[in-house]
Design goal:
With 591 residues, this protein is α+β, with helices and mostly antiparallel strands. The protein is 59% helix and 8% strand. It contains 24 helices and 13 strands. Strands 1, 2, 3, 4 and 6 form a five-stranded antiparallel β-sheet that branches. A four-stranded mixed β-sheet has the order 5-10-9-7. A two-stranded antiparallel sheet has the order 8-11. Strand 3 and strand 4 form a beta hairpin. The longest helix has 29 residues. The protein starts with a helix and ends with a helix.
């Protein structure tokens, strides 16, 4: 089921009566809200504190108008470039719920879609829906083979309702862009994106494929699960999937009775979202409490795969770069990241923005969800969005992903530290990503003006070693590969230079100690009472050795690394540098 704006326009231009009737209903519904805004403007009551009630009114109007407008509200809840923060916060609470439609209609849809009446397919079907949303409702059932399943049935006439609403909204968006001087956002583009997503969501077969793709990408984690799809009992308007027993993450009493820790599931949800965003690139854009269940076995189950989004590998890597620059406080580079991501135009002057970014993102590590979360970020970024030419690309729904998780975290543990808990995974991804442009970013971060930023490398390495995403051998293998690459060459040369200089210092100190011991000199240059501080290389090698300590006796763990061609070339360069330094030292002694 594909959205085609041209076909939609051609169809409804021949049906003006339907368009006018629905347009009038929409106009009447929004008229009181619009008059309220005019009243607020006249009395100068457009400040956020006065708009809370108005935002609540908008949410109610969208709910009353049905499926299309509920989904539009969900889209707008992630668009700080379109509506003010007070409206974002209220629309984030928009419930995707409508009254259930009659069972008889649902039974007819099952028969039309699957070819048989429901008793021929299911041994049991619940008398009433267990959930009713804007696009369909869900029944609990049992297959004749004994498996408990959830049966999702689409609302009748949904495609016609949504198609008409999209046509009307698209016409309004085009008029507003052309006629209202302060409208900068691409309203037609937003409506087209809404339409494309709605048409995808109306295709339940597509939702089933999304569920299987999600499970294939992230189901390797023993603590993440998604329902199995029963394709023989599914179609475009009916989806039969595995029934998963569980508790919403906000149902603390049930989780406590099962001996489950709510904090653990919050951490697991954020960790899985990081994987979706920065690893697979395919993410669940609506993980609200009803779509995330804690199972009695201690797994986090994801449900409802209608609203999914995707980030291409290029943008995925740029997002990871931007997160690292936020964590390390490199706000000059963050501005460049936002240009690459499409948030800012290429010709913008970044200098005024750098201190603004520092104000918004400074000291994020260790911040709790209440101090550094979606709400606080939007509040701080909103003035910048209207002050500078920000624009949100198509993968903006990732904002909704983390915003809904934030809402769950606030309910369970307001002191949860999202970035601190995610940093180990982010650090490992940053140190192991093979993309050439990404490696150039890593080299730029760790080598500034010819000086190795040992404190940053130490910080990244310590956090990466805390991650459970892989062992230390794979981390070192990626490091060797990076140093051997074209992008890592400047850092490799700098590391070798400092390593050789460090070795030379160690040899000189020990040679002096030896001459003192042998009585060859009475003027030692080495102060045994105040030894020199250890070089960062020693500290980093110490971290690696400590990480290896459980397997230090196992030669098989280290041998594959030592046998890699990259290791041979690195050792050869180190030996050549030592030989050159020794030759220079001998030449100086002879002179």
């Amino acid at each position: 089921m594909q959205y085609d704006s041209a076909a939609l326009t051609q169809y409804y231009r021949q049906r003006p009566l339907s368009v006018w009737v629905r347009s009038l209903a929409i106009l009447i519904s929004f008229s009181s809200f619009a008059l309220g805004l005019v009243w607020d403007w006249f009395w100068r009551r457009l400040q956020p504190r006065h708009q809370v009630a108005r935002a609540r009114q908008l949410r109610q109007k969208l709910t009353e108008l049905g499926s299309t407008f509920i989904k539009l509200g969900q889209i707008l809840s992630c668009r700080p470039d379109v509506i003010p923060p007070v409206y974002l916060e209220e629309l984030a609470n928009l419930q995707d719920q409508l009254p259930a439609f009659p069972n008889e209609i649902a039974y007819d849809i099952i028969k039309a879609e699957l070819g048989y009446p429901w008793p021929a397919i299911y041994a049991e079907l619940s008398d009433t829906p267990v959930a009713a949303a804007s696009l369909g409702q869900v029944y609990k059932a049992q297959l004749k083979t004994g498996e408990d399943v959830a049966v999702k049935v689409q609302r009748p006439g949904l495609k016609d309702i949504i198609s008409l609403d999209i046509y009307i909204l698209r016409g309004f968006g085009a008029w507003a862009q052309a006629s209202i001087w302060f409208v900068r956002s691409d309203l037609v583009g937003i409506i087209d994106e809404l339409a494309a997503r709605l048409f995808e969501e109306m295709d339940y077969a597509n939702e089933g494929r999304n569920a299987e793709r999600f499970a294939a990408l992230y189901g390797d984690d023993k603590n993440i699960t998604a329902p199995r799809i029963y394709w023989q009992y599914s179609g475009v308007r009916v989806l039969t999937m595995e029934w998963i027993d569980g508790a919403k993450l906000t149902q603390r009493e049930t989780m406590d009775a099962w001996g489950l820790d709510g904090d653990y599931f919050v951490e697991l949800g954020f960790a899985c979202s990081m994987r979706q965003l920065l690893e697979g690139g395919f993410f669940h854009a609506d993980p609200h409490p009803g779509n995330l269940l804690a199972t009695p076995e201690g797994k986090l189950a994801y449900l409802d795969f209608g609203m999914m989004s995707e980030v291409t590998p290029y943008y995925r890597d740029r997002l990871l770069e931007s997160v690292i620059h936020i964590l390390t406080g490199d706000f000059d580079s963050l501005g460049k990241d936002y240009i690459k991501l499409g948030f800012l135009p290429p010709d913008i002057d970044l200098q005024p923005l750098i201190p603004e970014f520092a104000e918004v993102f400074g000291n994020v590590l260790g911040a709790t969800i209440t101090e550094f979360g979606f709400k606080s970020i939007i509040e701080k970024l909103s003035p910048l969005i209207y002050k500078y030419p920000f624009r949100l690309p198509t993968y903006y729904l990732l904002i909704r992903c983390f915003a809904t998780l934030e809402g769950i975290a606030l309910n369970i543990n307001p002191n949860f530290q999202p970035l601190t808990n995610s940093y180990p995974y982010i650090a490992r991804r940053f140190l192991t990503e093979p993309d050439p442009e990404f490696r150039a970013c890593l080299q730029e971060l760790l080598l500034k003006k010819g000086q190795i930023q040992w404190h940053l490398l130490d910080d990244l390495l310590q956090n990466a070693l805390r991650s459970d995403a892989g062992d230390v051998s794979s981390l070192l293998a990626s490091g060797l590969d990076f140093l051997d690459s074209h992008e890592g060459a400047p850092l490799r040369r700098a590391v070798i230079s400092e390593l050789v200089a460090d070795l030379e210092t160690i040899l000189a100190v020990n040679f002096t100690k030896f001459t003192v011991f042998m009585g060859l000199t009475t003027e030692p240059k080495y102060d045994s009472e105040n030894p020199q501080p250890s070089h960062p290389i020693e500290k980093i090698l110490g971290l690696i050795v400590a990480a290896y300590s459980p397997d230090i006796q196992s030669v098989s763990t280290l041998m594959p690394l030592l046998l890699k061609p990259e290791a041979h070339r690195l050792i050869q360069e180190v030996l050549e540098a030592i030989a050159n330094r020794a030759e220079t030292w001998i030449y100086r002694q002879e002179s």
